[in-house]
Amino acid sequence: MTTTETTPQTTDVQSAGVAEITHWIDGTADAGHGTRRQDVFNPATGQVSGTLHLGDGEDLEKTLLAARRAADLWAETSLSKRMAVLFRFRELVASHTQELAALITAEHGKVLSDAAGEVARGLEVVEFACAAPQTLKGDYSDQVSTGIDVFSFRQPLGVVAGITPFNFPVMVPLWMAPVAIVTGNAFVLKPSERDPSASLLLAQLWKESGLPDGVFQVLHGDKEIVDGLLTHELVDGVSFVGSTPIAQYVYETGTRHGKRVQALGGAKNHAVVLPDADLDLAADHLSAAAFGSAGERCMAISVAVAVGDAADALVEKVGQRARDITVGDGTQAEAEMGPLITPASKERVQRLVGEAEADGAAVVVDGRDLVVDGREEGFFVGPTVLDRVQEHMSAYEQEIFGPVLAVVRVDTLEDAIRVINANPYGNGTAIFTGSGHAARTFQRQVTVGMIGVNVPIPVPAAQHSFGGWKDSLFGDHHIYGPDGVHFYTRGKVITQRWPHQNDESTASLNFPSNG
Question: Which is it for the CA torsion 235, 236, 241, 246, positive or negative?
């Protein structure tokens, strides 16, 4: 099969034009044993676009047995051969960016340019994984004692699973699988049930790259499959990205059953704007960070903390930019923002905005009643700006995950830092300022894992690791980068002596030392 012929395994279309979306088990599309089905929607039209096969216990067992067999062989495959697969996979993903973006837009709703950007950010981690000869190097200490050397190396965990969210159906799997696979593991992906099709195209690209069957598999399901992955004896590690309550559940359940777990949770990301900031620059970037992808990003800026005299001008500028955003079907060239993922998401955003208004917040821009011509059944909410939001309001306390920017007013930088540090989340934050002293004070004092200085969405480059603090992360390892390599591997330290057969023994009952 040439690269231009690859198409997603969602093309078994029923008479009603609805695709059957199956699993990918042991190198092939597999309808599975489970009989339950779930509808997949196009959020821009509100219409059902696919029927997803949900796995059951038999499907889980089949998938994990295939993964176990594959992991044993893949771990013994030379690093050069693993690298060759990763390089081919990188080129295949790059050449299928538009197909992947189209699948994302059709099931998630984000605009095509944003979906293509998601693929590009995922590719950065594939490229990092291609540096495995460097990241997997061990250490060697010569002659630590007479005739004794010590060295270390890392080995794969075995079978690992990735449970990924709806908002980045390509990027987040690419944050996990390439690092897991290049380090010698077999990887089982459990994607979101809301936008599952892109994962199957990824599976085909892995196969086309030469990856052995069973090393990358896709198993669709809901809580039944999640619980199975967290408790099954064949699973050695689990990576999760999603909401904080589920992240905590995944971490506690998985670790209780002996798994290594990294679980990334929710966020309430603040951007502090000081009076000395370039307010036009700040307003541009706040609007993009708050309303891009309809706010359905764990790194979206959902709170602007306006300090002192910056507040009035900032609210005016952000409000104008929010009004100018074109909302529509993500496939339309003029659209800058698409719909939310489900009707429930739309209703939740509308409710939280209404509660804020009832509690005394000012609705500067109101997107609750937006209707897109020709897409009246779509799950749209327009950009919304709330001013004079207080910390006790539900719109501040909860992760809205929609196109809503809440403006909190404070008097000083110290007040802004207090607001951020009092929040239970610690994923990302940003500061807009012209003062190096203020920026340095901010970055040292906030209890947040990822910080931007005049950068609104501080997602680290792939050679660093992604992860927050507090209720935004459960576990010791961040995702991708050096932490990703360490998560998917275990270290061994070898202390060795090769004495000459005629050497006199120096064994002693005393505790050994290297003196």
Answer: positive
Contact at 8 Å (CB) between 32 and 23?
yes
Candidate list 298, 304, 417, 446, residue with the active-site label: 298
Average pLDDT value for residue range 202-231 = 98
What does the DSSP assignment read for 153-198? EEEE-SEEEEE--SS-TTHHHHHHHHHHHHTT-EEEEE--SSS-HH
- Asked if residues 225 and 201 have their Cβ atoms less than 8 Å apart, the reply is no
Q: What is the pLDDT of residues 308-337, one digit of tens each?
A: 999 999 999 999 999 999 999 999 999 999
- Between the CA of residue 74 and those of 150, 343, 484, what are the distances in Å? 27, 43, 18
Give the count of beta carbons closer than 10 Å to the beta carbon of residue 80: 9
For residue 112, give both structure tokens. Answer: 């095509």
> Is the predicted pLDDT of residue 4 greater than 50, yes or no?
no
- Nearest residue to 272 (alpha-carbon basis) of 391, 389, 466, 438: 438
Indicate the range of 74-78, 82-86, 95-99, 506-510 predicted with least confidence: 506-510
- Report which secondary-structure segment, H or E, holds 53: strand 47-53
CA distances from 354 to 155, 156, 319, 337 (A): 53, 50, 18, 22
Residue 437 structure tokens: 């002293």
Half-sphere exposure of 144 (CA within 13 A, CB side): 14
Percent with pLDDT over 90 in the chain: 93
Please report the pLDDT score of residue 506 as a whole number.
72
State the Cα–Cα distance between residues 29 and 11, nearest whole angstrom. 11
Name 145's bridge partners. 148
Alpha-carbon span 273 to 285, nearest angstrom: 11
Residue 85 tokens read as 């697969």
Which segments of 225-322 are extended strands (E)?
A: 237-241, 260-264, 269-273, 301-307
Annotation says 130 is catalytic: no
Q: Could you tell me which of 465, 458, 471 has the C-alpha nearest to residue 428?
A: 458
What does the alpha-carbon distance between residue 327 and residue 6 come to, in Å, rounded to a whole number? 32
Burial class (CB within 10 angstroms; exposed 0-12, middle 13-18, buried 19+) of 99: middle
**Average pLDDT of every residue of the chain:** 95
